[in-house]
Amino acid sequence: VQLQASGGGLVQAGGSRRLSCSASGRGFINYTVAWFRQAPGKEREFVSAISRRSDNTRYADSVKGRFTISRDNAKNTVYLQMNSLKPEDSAVYYCAASSALVAIVTSSYNYWGQGTLVTVSS
């Protein structure tokens, strides 16, 4: 499966942004999809993940209550709705897919998109 992340941009603190992860190829419904992010000089970190049929979602503590992950299998797309954004949310956001169950580590994900930059100004 090939992934393409989009929706990044410049947003003011307190604002909202929705990221999309579009997949091409067959069998999108067979994949767990996650969002990770990487800020300059920092390691890539887990943000959120969603199971194949949306019955299991996970969030990093830093985004819980502010971000919502969802997916539309008919459109081969996963979304990350980000609300109440903070400057510390600024990063390149990557979507990733795995044929395994929901996980929070990068090594569990086999397929990665190219990343989309989110910048939150204070």
Describe the model.
The chain is mainly β and 122 residues long. Helix content is 0%, strand content 50%. The chain has strands spanning 2-6, 9-12, 17-24, 32-38, 45-50, 57-59, 67-72, 77-82, 91-98, 111-112, 116-121. Strands 2, 4, 5, 6, 9, 10 and 11 form a seven-stranded mixed beta sheet that branches. Strands 1-3-8-7 form a four-stranded antiparallel beta sheet, with no helix packed on it. Strand 5 (45-50) and strand 6 form a beta hairpin. It is globular and about 40 Å long.
Name the structural class.
mainly beta
Instruction: Tell me the radius of gyration.
Output: 13 Å
Q: How many runs of DSSP E, i.e. beta strands?
A: 11
Low-confidence stretches: none
Q: Globular, elongated, flat, extended or rod-shaped: what is the shape?
A: globular
Name the helicity range: under 10%
Please write the string of helix (H) and strand (E) elements. EEEEEEEEEEE
Largest sheet: 7 strands, mixed
DSSP helix count?
0
Compute the separation of the termini in Å: 37 Å
How much strand? over 45%
Mean pLDDT: 96
